[in-house]
Amino acid sequence: MKKYLAELIGTFWLVLGGCGSAVLAAGFPELGIGFVGVSLAFGLTVLTMAYAIGHISGCHLNPAVSVGLFAAGRFNSKDLLPYIVAQVIGGIIAGAVLYVIASGKAGFEVGGFASNGYGDLSPGGYSMIAAFVCEVVLTAVFLVVILGATDKKAPAGFAPIAIGLCLTLIHLISIPVTNTSVNPARSTAVAIFAGSGALQQLWLFWVAPIIGGVLGAVVYKVIGSKD
After folding, report:
1. Cα separation of 176 and 6, whole Å?
2. Is residue 227 over pLDDT 60?
3. What's the pLDDT band for 80 if we cut at 50, 70, 90?
């Protein structure tokens, strides 16, 4: 149970830190951190939790990562569903905490609440196909980086830095497209509270990242083969 609780806490931190930076700080008059700040916030949540709980649970914080690691032969099937459940619960708790904080400001309007979307719900107005391709490709690359950085042949101790910076870069690329998911738990956590049609579009942010996770596992098994 310790590793499941670690995943819950870690995903809680990812959503609270990443989505919290978007909801509470990104648009603050004159002092807003903008897209770059939000991108760094997401990367820092993963980096800090990787050092904090990596030795306990592996610090997946993401159903697509858990599925990808399973597809790569790096994760036990018996833990797959409990990990995903823990991640989603941790994310939803963080979403609820963030909602309570954000709604404490006079004139609060829930709006998109850092949710993910395509079409009218895309920050840049990108289509469903564009969003789908973006989420698949970037999640696949994320898995390649995770698998490579945590490979026994990789330099020890630096994996959290590489993974955190990779997630930062992913956000810098795709916030305008989908508001960046690459993580079904993160998407679910805020879609529940969003005042838009985020729940209707949530399917894409489960399907695309999981396809991307499996694709990344396949790619790394080819390029990382001992043969």
Report:
1. 31
2. no
3. very high
Q: Backbone phi, then psi, for 184, in 5-degree steps?
A: -60, -35
The C-alpha atoms of residue 142 and residue 164 are separated, in whole angstroms, by 10
Distance CA 8, CA 96 (A): 14
Distances (CA, A) of 119 to 34, 89, 132, 214: 21, 28, 11, 26
Question: Count of alpha carbons within 13 Å of 165, Cβ hemisphere only?
Answer: 7
pTM of the model: 0.95
**According to the model, what pLDDT value does residue 226 have?**
67
In angstroms, rounded to a whole number, what is the distance separating the alpha carbons of residues 181 and 202? 10
Using CA atoms, how far apart are residues 93 and 16, in angstroms rounded to an integer? 9
Encoding tokens for residue 55?
């030795």
